[in-house]
Amino acid sequence: MRHERTNALRTRWPIVQAPMAGGPDTPELAAAVSNAGGLGSLGCAYMTEAQIEAAAVKLRTLTSQPFALNLFVRADAPSDPSAAARVSPILGEFRRELGLPAEPPPGPPTPQFEDQLEAVLRARPAVFSFTFGAPTREQIKALHARSIAVIGTATTVEEAVVLASLDVDAVCAQGSEAGGHRGTFLGSFEEALIGTITLVPQIAARVKVPVIAAGGIMDGRAIRAMLGLGASAVQLGTAFMTCPEAGTSEAHRAALATAWRTVVTRAFSGRPARGVRNRFCEAFAAVEAAPFPQQQRLTRDIRAAAAAQGRADIMQLWAGQGAPLGRAMPAATLVELLVREAGLGS
Ligand SMILES: Cc1cc2nc3c(=O)[nH]c(=O)nc-3n(C[C@H](O)[C@H](O)[C@H](O)COP(=O)(O)O)c2cc1C
Prior knowledge:
Number of helices: 14
Largest sheet: 8 strands, parallel
Oligomer: single chain
Bound molecules: flavin mononucleotide
Structural class: alpha/beta
CATH topology of the largest domain: TIM Barrel
Number of domains: 2
CATH superfamily of the largest domain: Aldolase class I
CATH architecture of the largest domain: Alpha-Beta Barrel
Number of strands: 11
């Protein structure tokens, strides 16, 4: 059974390196994981169509193994001037501190999901994964018509049932421990903060498609536990952030080692995401951030300047709750270690 389900992922090992759009994932990281028998993923959510196609070309120069491309399924609300006015005094303070001009420069528009998906269809990865919502049935059919397997992200049983009814090939069950954005697309995100240990068996009991467990999985012990709870595979993000192939900055790596406390915050992008608590998150504890992706655009140069200046008190420091359990080693070595620890090879 497990062997058959692992094949649904099209990989030797039931281990997925999570897509991590915006820096931590790189073609080098994804290719190293795929070459080691896992499924490497590349988060393409912030890429234009041309960038997505170029990334796939680059990946194919680095690996002949299956890999996944990943997108955010979004229908963006129009920018809200009152939200911009609400957050501007807070952002203005950080801009001054970082030596940025008073107003953010007009950046490129956020690429549309439909256009990005066209690029994925042309790039034809073995796997397409998504979060934040659900594509239409027609979009999933178009992916299947090109032999692209489809993995959708669910943070509740209800979401998993919706995804399964759309004929996805696997559901990634994202527990509340997970680093980065919450995938929640039905109801409030607070009610969808369900720990991986309880989410995985409930989703596995309700849907027929394979379940990929995500959130807080850092070593082979946790992989074994998840497979024992009904998962067919696991997806690890934070654990791969400390690999040398990852694009994680030095300040971010240092913060992960002592990330005993993380928070789910809308401060950086407007959507709830888990990261290390810092002064920037705290500034938005009492003031509501602008909606996604407006907040993302408004904070773009602040996040870039904070990262360039190594300002861990202002930077976006995505991290799962397992971050201090991270082990810095090449991705292939980490995959081998996880396989050994979980007893998968035997
Ligand atoms: C830095 C970072 C960026 C992420 N970006 C994405 C993304 O672009 N697309 C996506 O589907 N999930 C994204 N995630 C969530 C992961 O898919 C996954 O749910 C999570 O990493 C699992 O929890 P863990 O970090 O504790 O392993 C991201 C996670 C992190 C840590």
